[in-house]
Amino acid sequence: MLSEHQIQGIFVPIVTPFLPSGELDLASFERMVTQLQTHDIQGIVLNGTTGESPTVAWEEVSTLMQSMTAITKNRPGQEPVRGSDQNSMPIIVGVGTNDTRASARRAEMAGSMGADAVLVVTPYYSRPSQEGIVAHYEQIAKVGVPVLAYEIPSRTGVRVDVSTMRRILDIDGVIGLKDSTGSTDFVSALTASGNSKPVLCGEDRLFHAMLCQGASGGMLASAHVETDSFLEVYRLATEGRYSESLNTFNRLLPLIELLFRESNPAPIKWLLKQQGLLASDTLRLPMTPITAGLQADLGQLLAEGPYVGK
Ligand SMILES: O=C(O)C1=N[C@H](C(=O)O)C[C@H](O)C1
Fold first, then answer.
1. According to its UniProt record, which protein family does this protein belong to (predicted)?
2. What is the mean pLDDT of each run of 10 residues along the chain (310 residues)?
């Protein structure tokens, strides 16, 4: 199980590969996991936003988890995970829904499948009160699998106040936050007192800025590619070498901008297919493939960019 001290470094929210028929593509998934675990990342997130959680059935999550744990229990030649003596790659499973009981049940099942923590998004759509949101996290944390809260108002339609988030982070069993609020204000407010549980950046274009404001790492879809460059941005920042970290990050920005010009994960799936890691860039509806214009721009970056495709 993950502890709050391990909520640092880079976590990659893995895509869920589909065949053109729409079925799971396990061969591509295994290739992706095998490739990712050769990097010094802190963990992989299964069934996150980038994993298209709204259209992946729970039985499919279980199939993916079995395949992933078989690969990640042997992580040859890697240092132990930061903050622990664990050598296998930690796995965080997305279990958040807008139904508290269903999310708690999923957290329990994820724990029995070997998840090291669960990612729980702010309950979307129903527009619950701040009290309701706290109670949601309390119920799920009671299951006993470490919980990483996930605040992403642009997708959920609700916004958690800073004071509410402090209460959520105070819950026993909540080990940190993934901040996809779209600005650095939330992380600055939370970390200002110096005693917050860790906050990971979940907004790729703000990764460096959030590290400067006290974030302990990032959960970044774009780190599927150029993984070592994202790790370098992180490492330099943790060494206090912020301007060198910014230089590396600035070279990644054109890539990040293109990967989020249209809805994630369509652009990253297209790119991974070009790199031969995915057999197909198929998405499940209502997600649709990227436009020809974005294909052309990403293709140009692949051909010319100093940072992509190496
Ligand atoms: O799947 C995730 O985790 C992430 N989701 C965010 C989103 O798609 O809005 C972006 C971030 O890179 C990671």
1. Belongs to the DapA family.
2. 96 98 98 96 98 98 97 74 79 98 98 98 98 98 98 97 97 98 97 89 98 97 97 98 98 97 98 97 98 97 67
Report the first-to-last Cα separation within the chain, whole angstroms.
Answer: 34
Q: Which of 150, 197, 234, 269 is catalytic?
A: 150
Domains within the chain, CATH numbers bracketed: 4-250 (3.20.20.70)
Q: Ligand 1 pocket by C-beta < 6 Å: which residues? A: 13, 45, 48-50, 152, 180, 202, 204, 219-221, 264
Question: For residue 195, how many C-alpha atoms fall within 13 Å in the half-sphere facing its CB?
Answer: 2
* ipTM associated with this complex: 0.93
